Amino acid sequence: MQRHNLQELCDRFIAYGAVIRNYKPMTISNYKGTFNIFFSETDVKYLDELNKQMIEKWFFDSRLKRKWNPATFRHRHKHFNVFFKWLIKEKLLQENYVAEMEKPKLEQRLPRTLNHNEAQIVLDASFHLSYRYKGTNTKYVLQRILFKNRKG
Known about the structure:
Layout: H1 6-19, H2 25-41, H3 52-65, H4 70-89, H5 116-126, E1 132-133, E2 136-137, H6 138-146
Antiparallel strand pairs: 1-2
Helix pairs in contact: 1-2, 5-6
């Protein structure tokens, strides 16, 4: 049985992504970054050295040691998921080692911006507030903050 060099397979997969899947340069760069981190932190050289436990351990250890946030974990997971699907399609791998791996829940964050409708909802909710800022109507203050860059 022929041993497949994992670095060469990653390079082939990235070329496939660039040429056939039309991945953007940033996407290609992200995939390369994920694979480079994996290669630098493990001694894996050949595809037959990979297994589910090793991949899961690497993800778990990276989350702890490298302090990956949930979004980073999920991006790296996606990179390996797509790579393993490609390996299966190429008949080089039997099983997707990350397909059933549990992923951390994403943190709930406030949106950076509000669209016009969302801003209007905030403004309408403030109509019933009795708080006044330095004698100014709260609704007026919110209106100035929410719509300061809007024209018209």
